[in-house]
Amino acid sequence: MNTFRELFENLREFAVAVGAVTMFLLRMLRHLPRAITRPSLIVEQIYNSGALSLVIIMICGVFIGAVVGLQGYEVLQRFGAEESLGVGAALALLKELGPVVTALLFAGRAGTALASEIGLMRATDQLTAMEMMAVDPVLRVAVPRFLGGAISLPLLAMIFIGIGLYGVQLIAVQQLGVDAASFWSQMRAAVRVDDVTDGLVKSCVFGVVCSLIAVYEGYTAIPTAEGVGRATTRTVVISAVLVLMLNYMLTAVMLR
Amino acid sequence: MQSDTTPSQVTRTTVTDNIVEIRDVYYSVGHRSIFSGLNLSIPRGRITAVMGPSGTGKTTLLRLITGQIRPDRGQVLFDGIDVSQLSRRELYRLRLRMGMLFQNGALLTDMNVFENVAFPLREHTDLPDALIRNIVLTKLQAVGLRGAARLSPAELSGGMARRVALARAMATDPEMLIYDEPFTGLDPISMGMIVRLVRQMNYALGITSIVVSHDVDEISILADTSYLISGGKVVASGSFVELKDHESEIVHQFMNGLADGPVPFHYAPAPDYFTQLLSDDT
Amino acid sequence: MRSTRTIEMSTGLFVLLGFASLFFLVTQITNRELSVDSKSYDVEARFENIGSLKVGAAVSMAGVTIGRVASIRLDQGVYKAVVRMKINETYDKIPADSDAAIMTSGLLGGQYVGITAGGAEEYLKNGGRIELVQDALVLENLINQLAASFSNRGSDTGKQPAAQETK
């Protein structure tokens, strides 16, 4: 019977958490019109979440592309279909690897930075000080960071996919001798604009989710060193799980 | 910035000589009762000290005064206006008339000293940059840190950070300043600086000052009136001398820094010493 | 505290890079309709069975892609699949009696339409129809044919030994 009660408690806590996050999101959205009147804050946050994540995204993009090229070539070779490597790699990157891996990397790099920054502001009373100075911290701190992240992730995903394709090409054409012309032409023949937009939509959704979680965890962190640490960890874990869950759901919807 | 801050839908009860009135306030967190029937008045234009042993809710009191939390029962009045009844917008308007100095300064870490002091001006006024610059430099000069304008908060010592925070709290020329433990953790020199500044703000500008502290020595120099809070109520009030000679045991223990008394040395629920030593468990 | 100008510039570059990537992906990677970059003319062919031919599949001649399958529909009058193809207008010398066959590209590849030139002196024009067609090879039919030919041969060989024995 104890396990039932625990389960019930956990479910209840889960429902409460979902409700709290939703209300926080609504609160931020209500501030959206006013937040847009301060573009400099948003620009700064796009820089923090996006531009500063470029290096890790590009490095990982090349390596993911290279491994897709390597692995894909080996598998396709068994069926004599090496020339389809371009198609396979492009579709894999566009529809799945691009959005998902970028989102996970984003959660790890930018998400934790956001959560710990806001959490620290909470722990050192900076958010309370703002309240005391009659400045709404949600408007001034949370919303710009949320928007910065939500805008950055799709852009990062596109860059990741582009760099990834370069990595595939590097391995396939330069290294393994796949014919460059057929590599690209097969790709062009099989990939549709829909595939690109599918990936774009996914990364937009992931952008909203990862930024929301990061900002929420930081804002509601317990104001101690330990509390900020926990908020950071939770950001990564919850973002990762949500991204993968939503990925499945979005894919199912898109493939109908 | 003394703008028109009379909220339209809020009724003023009475305009008194006390800028803040706490009337019969009850507040508890969960099962723990923090205040049970607290009564307090902060006279306008004076320095009032609020003291008490650790954990008696001094910071909670400040949060009640500034409207961050609402009492379960009772009234919290600022200039005759019931703070706990205000909407968020009205509360923000009211807070422009108060300044608060946090224990660790709470400077915004992504800006330098100048930007920190300018922050409330930039957020609430449309003043041109040149005017803001002059105001900021004036406030920094008042606290003696005009030369530190370009430093970042990480480069400041504790005392300097608090002085910058004071300059920032002063930026909008509030009627009342609240100092939350301003002396904690400072060396004697920095403490002296803060004391001097608190005095100056009060004497020169007529700003009401509430100092929450347990530094009895510093309070003795500064305060016009003092309150001692313990067990959720005011146990003593009046001038410093009155408190020092108070008959109540707890007041006596606090004012003289005695290790044992109504606030016991030994933490309460502990088994008999001899028995515990002899037994095996903790 | 970086200067605002550096931040703005870096952010600008980042956003531009993001959009450039998107632009690159959409234009360089995706399937472009032939009508977008070159003119084409329509040619039709009717098949009994198109197998797994899809819209957008290639139409090729001698291995060279000369067009795309634009639409596939079922003619309920004659119960045949009507495949309309768009042929690049530079390939305007396809004999009117050429034959269109549905082929498979490699083992895993999709199906496409392969056109083999005939000998007529007239060429296909816009709206023209290819009459000679070869349907897609359907695996089940192949297997049935194979099974049938085995059983035929089996009954032949079965007779001879018996005849010999009765001698």
CATH fold-type name of the domain at 17-94 and 214-282 in chain B: Rossmann fold
* Mean pLDDT over the full residue set of chain A: 90
For this structure, what is the CATH class of the domain at 17-94 and 214-282 in chain B?
A: Alpha Beta
SS-based class of chain B: alpha/beta
List the helices and strands of chain B in order. Answer: EEEHEEHEHHHEHEHEEHHH
Which sheet architecture does the biggest sheet of chain B show?
6 strands, mixed
CATH architecture of the domain at 17-94 and 214-282 in chain B: 3-Layer(aba) Sandwich
CATH superfamily of the domain at 17-94 and 214-282 in chain B: P-loop containing nucleotide triphosphate hydrolases
Characterize the biggest β-sheet of chain A.
none
Keyword list:
heterotrimer; B: 282 residues; alpha/beta; Rossmann fold; six-stranded mixed beta sheet; four-stranded antiparallel beta sheet; 10 helices; 10 strands; 22% strand; C: 167 residues; 2 domains; eight-stranded mixed beta sheet; 3 helices; 8 strands; elongated; disordered C terminus
Structure description:
The complex is a heterotrimer of chains A (256), B (282) and C (167). Chain A has 256 residues and is mainly alpha-helical. Chain A has one domain (31-254). Chain A is 87% helix and 0% strand. The longest helix of chain A is centred in the middle third of the chain and has 39 residues, at 85-123. Chain A is elongated and about 65 Å long. Chain B has 282 residues and is an alpha/beta fold. Chain B has helices spanning 58-65, 88-95, 113-124, 129-142, 158-170, 188-205, 216-222, 240-244, 249-256, 273-278, and strands at 18-29, 32-43, 47-51, 73-78, 81-82, 98-101, 176-180, 208-212, 225-230, 233-238. In chain B, strands 6-7-8-3-9-10 form a six-stranded mixed sheet, with helices on both faces. A four-stranded antiparallel sheet of chain B has the order 2-1-4-5, covered by helices on one side. Chain B is globular, with a radius of gyration of 21 Å. Chain C has two domains: 1-30; 40-142. Chain C is elongated, with a radius of gyration of 27 Å. Chain C starts with a helix and ends with a helix. The interface between A and C is medium-sized, with 36 and 27 residues.
